[in-house]
Amino acid sequence: MGTYAKLAKRALETDTPVMVQIQELIRGAKDVMSLAQGVVYWQPPEQALEKVREIVWEPSTSRYGADEGLPELREALIKKLRDENKLYNSSVMVTAGANQAFVNLVLTLCDAGDSVVMFPPYYFNAYMSFQMTGITNILVGPGNPKTLQPDADWLERILSENKPVPKLVTVVNPGNPSGTYIPEHLLKRISDLCKSAGSWLVVDNTYDHICRYFMYDGLKHSCIEDNHIINVFSFSKAYGMMGWRVGYIAYPSEVEGIGAQLLKVQDNIPICASIISQRLALYSLETGPEWVRDRVKDLVKNRDLLLEALSPLGEDAVKGGEGAIYLWAKLPDNYPDDFEVVRWLAQRHGIAVIPGGASGGPGHVRISFGGLREADCAVAAGRLRRGLEELMRDGMVQ
Ligand SMILES: Cc1ncc(COP(=O)(O)O)c(C=O)c1O
Fold first, then answer.
1. Average pLDDT for residues 296-308, to the nearest whole number?
2. I need a surface site. Which of 95, 322, 324, 371 has the fewest CB within 10 A?
3. What residues are in contact with ligand 1 under a 6 Å CB criterion?
4. Which helix (H) or strand (E) holds 247?
């Protein structure tokens, strides 16, 4: 007792969740505003919440449901995938959020000891999912220094040179923590490389809505499908359903056995996603994409406020932010310890952001602009700007 010796190496060697560390930091400091957690400020559609209130007493709400999700919700999602994402040959499994969807996939597709590929700055939870599954060979490829988009030439090399061939390649579009968007031609090239190497491609589209309605210069978010591609989605952000925990996997219908293997994992983790949450997801979908569009367009003002607040860091310091709810900012070279700067900003200036080291991008910070209404975001932006001005002028004075 009192020793780590009896705990699994897989768990011990998995990173500590950065959000948990930031939550502790926020609790330990006074009056901190958060630009840290990737959340949106709105609640689910009112009509959907009202309908959910009515089914609380229905016996089926309290029973287990089908492991793969409520048939009505899966049917609605297959239609949504066809109409909005142009995915015509996908089957759906509903999960307790996109994070659980990703864990299901890693457990279904990978064995301990396999190698996998991701690109920095990567989504920290995806990295942790690999670590806790016993995948020790996580190949982290370079991105384009200007756009942060994955370097497909590097991927081509790795997929042809690395033996055994990496089992799985994953990308997030648009990215967390950067908000970087992957254009369709690049996604297709990555897919072609995976296909000829025999690797799975898992695309996390958690922000598909916050991309379709929130992109600049005519950029267009798209999904692609093939028998080696699996797409992941979430209800958390678009519909303000973070705490309801609903996501889904769109996997190729033609690949024999994948549904059956996914079900084994599903049956041992949540059995099924919460029934009342799935109903809320269905009712929210029924309110239509305009509901989401109306909310997402207001985020543009938050993004502008925070871009301005980051300006003390210099012209080329800020990247990403083409979709999703994030900006990715480089700290000056003399501050390689991003967590130190994050602590200082919280304690001295009352503003919380995420250290980039958690995403394979030390010396950077992630700023989330979805969680505050415009007026609060303006206050938070003021604090951030004052903090960064002081950092640039005087350093981390106490
Ligand atoms: C890229 C990405 N994937 C997955 C998730 C988790 O989403 P969910 O709440 O559906 O588990 C997030 C949440 O921030 C995310 O940014």
1. 92
2. 371
3. 38, 97-99, 123, 172, 176, 204, 206, 234, 236, 242, 247
4. strand 247-252
